[in-house]
Amino acid sequence: EAHLRKHPIDPCELNVNLSYSLSKIIKKALEKDPSCRFKSASELADSLSKSIANKSWVDSIKYFFFSRENK
């Protein structure tokens, strides 16, 4: 039940190389209040598509997954 009440750890605390834009998308997807989350998978995809123009988060994801494999 704690996961229902507590806010998740900030994604940037888990990976300091994570871009702000991707962190913001992750936080919105994990919102406790459903009305604050993405309304659909399409809305999430749109946010990711807009963010990908920045490209910095793509590198963040690669770093996050590859650095975890090496631990």
Task: Please specify the SSE layout and strand pairing.
Layout: H1 2-5, H2 11-14, H3 20-29, H4 41-52, H5 56-69
Question: Mind explaining what this structure looks like?
Answer:
The chain has 71 residues and is mainly alpha-helical. Helices cover 62% and strands 0% of the residues. It contains five helices and no strands. It has helices at residues 2-5, 11-14, 20-29, 41-52, 56-69. Helix 3 packs antiparallel against helix 4. The chain is flat and about 30 Å long. It starts with a helix and ends with a helix. The mean pLDDT is 79.
Chain-averaged pLDDT: 79
Span from first to last CA?
A: 30 Å
Q: Estimate the strand proportion.
A: under 5%
Q: Which spans have pLDDT < 50 for at least 5 consecutive residues?
A: none
Helix content: 55-70%
How many extended strands? Answer: 0
H/E topology pattern: HHHHH
Rg estimate, integer Å? 13 Å
Count of helical regions: 5
Query: What is the general shape?
Result: flat
Characterize the biggest β-sheet: none
Structural class designation: mainly alpha
What are the salient characteristics of this protein?
71 residues; mainly alpha; flat
Q: Quick gist of this model?
A:
The protein is mainly alpha-helical. The protein is 62% helix and 0% strand.
